[in-house]
Amino acid sequence: MTAPTTTTGPGGDVTGPHLTDADVVVVGGGPAGSCAALVAARAGLRVVLLERGPFPGSKNMYGGVVYPRILDQLIPQWWTQAPVQRWITRRSTMLLTDTQAMSVDFRSQAWAAAPHNGATAVRPEWDRWLAEEAAAAGAQVVCSTTVTGLLRDGHRIVGVRTDRPDGDLTARVVVACDGVNSFLAKQAGLYEHADAAHYTVGVKETLALPKATIDERFNVRDRDGVDIEILGGTGGVNGGAFLYTNLESVSVGVVLKVPKLAAQQRRPEEIIAALKAHPAITPLVDGGELVEYSAHLIPEAGLAMMPKVVADGMVVAGDAAALCLAAGIWLEGVNFAMASGMYAGESVVEAVRAGDVSETGLAGYRRRLADSFVLRDHRKLRRAPSLVLSDRVQHRYPPMIANTIERMFRVDNPAPKPGLRRILAEERKRAGVRVRDLARDAWDAMRTFG
Amino acid sequence: MIAACLKWSAATGGWSAADQAALELGLQHAERTGTDCVAVTVGPAAAAGALGEALACGASRAVHVVVDGDLPSWDTAVALSAAVAEAITVWCGDYSADRGSGSVPAYLAALRHCEQALGVVEARPGSLPFEVLRRLDGGRRERVSVTGPAVVSVEGAAARLRRASLRAQLADHSARLTTVAGPPADHLDAPVVAYRPRARQLPAPAGAVALDRIGAILHSGTPARRGETVELEPPAAAAAILDALTRWGYRAGGAAPGGATS
């Protein structure tokens, strides 16, 4: 190994020998980082994967379902070894008001069989498994090590500085997978500006319940699981809620728009407590013993907040590149992280072999993202985050729909049944929704999801 | 020679805080007495990576007694005693990351016919004799003088393991790692996973307001539950204990928890 001869500044400028300690240094042992390290190590590159936690995944959480089919390309028959809690066979979208609930519930037993569709998992187990795959391929995993800055040679990024003694590490390419609040991407100047409105905060309680109780309450058996995505139940703060089954626990939580939460001066745990007290939720979580409480920022603005993902000597993947899809009925992050990590790894291998790790040499990463579901889904659903988190969708439509359905099914004899059109018109007025706004949102929804 | 015995846990992928403290004190001891510090572990092949960290922290060499499974505490001590036969002082953690019984240090001392100081909370190791402070019941402490070859088990707060440099972490330590085959182990049928308490359903606390509900959870205002003393024949006593554990929610469906491991 060759140490840089000079370093200056907080991140350090490096001049001197151009031999590097590693071909690739991957920062962050989450799904993106491990997939990038796995691909690069399999190609024979010298890879170091740095993780700040005591083991990969120790600091990670998520609030929903992993959709791992992208792993077909990396780990054949991954479902035989992946640490999965339950395979999702029931998918429910629920709309909540203070006293009402409406669900659209779908079940497919086909999802219980390989190659499956989605799964619930415990992230420390999932991320550790992926990192072990990378290590088995030859990547050197170093934990309990925080990257504090970038090393530069002029404009070019040539490595990282860590908090360990003698902790500078030079590499031909840095892959920044350091999570939602990516200091490396910011330090490299890849984020133009940070806007709190682009972020939500996900807060989750994991409640232990016996497996038999979960099976009975959620109407599943064996390793089948349920994912419930909820519009409403967030105490008037724009966002959403979720409830899903693990093997011997359920996870219930909320995703809240940060500026709205701050403006209302509400505590997330109060909002979760109110959600758990809702008559539609209480029977599902009653008696659960709190075993975990966690919170995490989520980059929810999609394309609107996405940074430049390539610089001279560096690529950015996963949450660090804001590659999280929050599009109402589709809430996905781990699959985007794994895919972007995989594409980052492939592009780095290509650039290193070609001997050009400049922004131009690494441009294959941007092209791979653009040609894959990663950016195609984001482009297609680019209007979704603002539409789903808008005040009308959040606060006016749920009571309008719920009241309409309540009146539709209410039997007010001796009064005759009113017409559905009349109910809808009355409830629209009561919710304060103008016809032109309704039409505009319907058009937007058609364009977004159609 | 100074030895530090470490127990690697598959569930956590590392050592307990107590084992880390043992390694740090072993390293300090070796530095102050000008001798070598050897890190020793009995465990599966995956434990070798953790020994690499011990070498990165400054251990002179490491010995990995490879066993594919779990060993009873006595067998673990036997396997360790051969590896640390030349050590003057053996430092151990007083508990392992996989909730073992913590009995290996005492067995090791018995096998070596040497002094033992268990549950040490403070130590400044050096040339013999040196003193250590150990925890006693009831909040009391005992100052013990280590005068000869000894096994010392330490709590996690006794020392904080130094951070290895990044260069040392990345270096190839294989030349200083000796691997020896251990005795056959009891094979585990189930995969090792992180410990989680058994899930159980809890009744919601009664009370109209939050303060009452918190009071109900904490049993405030009600007399403390006192211990029950019964005099029974051993079979009846065992049945009474199992019954109490079941009532208190620690035991479900008649299944007893697994036996203690090293």
Secondary-structure arrangement, i.e. CATH architecture of the largest domain in chain B: 3-Layer(aba) Sandwich
Structural class of chain A: alpha/beta
Count of discrete structural domains of chain A? 3
Shape of chain A, please? globular
**Low-confidence residue ranges of chain A:** 1-18
Sheet of most strands of chain A: 8 strands, mixed
In angstroms, what is the radius of gyration of chain A?
Answer: 24 Å
List keywords for this structure.
heterodimer; A: 450 residues; alpha/beta; FAD/NAD(P)-binding domain; D-Amino Acid Oxidase, Chain A, domain 2; 14 helices; globular; disordered N terminus; B: alpha/beta; Rossmann fold; 9-stranded mixed β-sheet; elongated; disordered C terminus
SSE blueprint:
The complex is a heterodimer of chains A (450) and B (262).
Chain A: E1 22-27, H1 31-42, E2 47-50, E3 84-96, E4 101-107, E5 119-121, H2 123-136, E6 140-142, E7 147-153, E8 156-162, E9 168-176, H3 183-187, E10 199-208, H4 211-218, E11 224-231, E12 239-245, E13 249-257, H5 258-264, H6 268-276, H7 282-285, E14 289-299, E15 310-311, E16 314-316, E17 325-327, E18 330-332, H8 334-354, H9 363-371, H10 373-380, H11 384-388, H12 391-409, H13 420-430, H14 435-449
Parallel strand pairs in A: 1-2, 1-9, 2-6, 3-11, 9-16
Antiparallel strand pairs in A: 3-4, 3-5, 7-8, 8-9, 10-13, 10-14, 11-12, 12-13, 15-16, 17-18
Helix pairs in contact in A: 1-2, 1-8, 8-9, 12-13
Chain B: E1 2-6, H1 17-33, E2 37-43, H2 48-57, E3 61-66, H3 73-83, E4 89-93, H4 104-112, E5 115-123, E6 130-135, E7 141-146, E8 150-154, H5 166-170, E9 177-181, H6 210-218, H7 234-247
Helix pairs in contact in B: 3-4
